[in-house]
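User: I'm curious whether this sequence folds into something compact or stays loose and floppy. Could you predict its structure so I can see for myself?
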Amino acid sequence: MSFVSQLIIIGLIVVLVALISFLLAKQYRKVGPNEVLIISGGRKRTVIEPDGTKRKIGYRYRVGGGTFVIPFIESVSTLPMEVIAMDIKTPEVHTHSGVPVMVTATAQVKIDSSDHAIRQAAEQFLGLGREGIRDVSMTILEGKMRDVIGSMTVEDIYRNRHVFAQKVIELSQGDFERMGLTILSFSLKDISDTQGYLDALGKPQIAAAKRDAVIAEAETEKEAIIKSSQARKEGEVARLEAEALIAKAQWENEAKKAESQTLVNKKKAQADYAYELERVRLSQEIKKEEAKVRLIEKEQAIKIEELEIARREKELEATVIKPADARKYQIIAEAEAEEKRAQAEARSKAELLKLEGEALAESIRSKGLAEAQALVEKAKAWEKLNQAALLEMYIDKLPDLAKAVAEPLSKVDKIILVGGEKGPGASRITAQVAEVLAQMPDVVKSLTGVDLKEYLQEKFSPKKQEEAEE
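Assistant: Here's the prediction. I'll summarize afterward.
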């Protein structure tokens, strides 16, 4: 088996395991604590009813939590366990005394948590949900409320609401237990009628209450007036007695104040005299101490002034005299150094000028000697040259002369010939250049006295050529 085949098999196994794990995880169902998970299908189970009888059922349940559901065999449903609140209002129902009334009540019901109740509710409400339970409960309670209204008078219902609620619960409990439900609470909210019976029922009590209230109010006002008058009289007497006591107390207080003021003034005079004496004595002592302090301050000032004078003398010596002496010595030293430097520079310049003059004279002498020697050598060379050599030199220079004559023509872009003989311009220019070159031997002869034509004729004569061939 190849490596690729092994990889394919391993991949298929992994995919298969993942698929199985996904299916198993999907089959694990969970519900909250306020729900019942009903799992139908699978094997049947035996349950014992409250009366002791046994019966088989084809489902199981789980209150809250979760459980594994066998795929393709079991199915899952949920049953609500939370409290269901409802408002119940009856139409007009005749009471025991024949008065039609309408009653409004509120109730809270739920599925009981016992096993028998859960089985009863699952068999009757599975698939209906909260609304199904509410509708059935409201229908039962409304019917039982009609029964209780028919058995009681309006006055009994109005005065004994708790009795009415208790009777409705007692009549409904059996029906609710057979469906697996329980009534958590029931209370009467309101009683009303369209004939005005309840209003009329309350009018005598209202009138009597108003009458009793007016009488009680009058009695209260009378007692209040009597008590108020008595209180004012007692208050006036008490006020006069209090004012007399206050006047007596004020007189005694003024007398005591006068006596106290006399003692206070006496003590104050003694204290003022003692204070003045003490102030004078302290003033004298203070003046003595101030004189001592001023004397000490003057002595300290004199010492400080002496120290300041000494400090200034030292500062003057340090900042003026010594720097001046140092500057004087520095100036003298700088002057001596400058004088020595000037003398050295003068000597150096004199020696340098002397050396430069000697070098220049030697250079001029050497140059003159060299030029004189060159002229001597040149004169000797010219003396040795014969006429043939000079002509050879002239002949060698002729091409350069021809080039110099023709060179200006090479730098001219365009030449216009005016007058003269007819013919091509180039031939005329060539002829003129040739004429200039032909005149060169005459020019050489006039300048040097050498006849170039004669030399050339002699050099290139047939006799000379034969001799050269031989």
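Summary: The first strand starts at residue 28 and ends at 48. The two ends are 114 Å apart (CA to CA).
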